[in-house]
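Table S4 entry, SsrA-binding protein.
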Amino acid sequence: MAPGKKSDPNNKVAAENRKARFSYEVLDTIETGLVLTGTEVKSLRGGHANIQESYASLEGGEIWLINSYLPEYLQGNRFNHEPRRHRKLLVSKREMARLGQAVEREGMTMVPLKIYFNDRGRAKLLLAIARGKKLHDKRETEKQRDWARERGRLMKERG
């Protein structure tokens, strides 16, 4: 951490999809807002959300986050939310048109990479436009990762 820079408690990752970068070739990323209820925000701050199997879809002129899991807030009683409901993403019309075009024409997929809180304490979603990797591409990625790890060990040994 840089000297003189304080750690902001609002600016933290609430959920991350680490498997996405292995399964997909990420071509572009977009920061989007999320339409959430109060209990969903409190649940997100607890850090038990899961976006591993989720994806984004363009339906009815809006982009929706589908199959994401935000557990119920324990103190939410009857005002609680559904854990797997569809959540609306806030994107400009121009970005929405670009995303829709990439999905329709080029066969891309909209994959959420992480949900985090920005400097102002707002929940944001990092959405990727990605293309699915084939099995041989995944093997190549794993080979490169293993070699980088091995190279780091060798460099550390030899000084």
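The helical segments are 20-23, 38-46, 93-106, 135-158.
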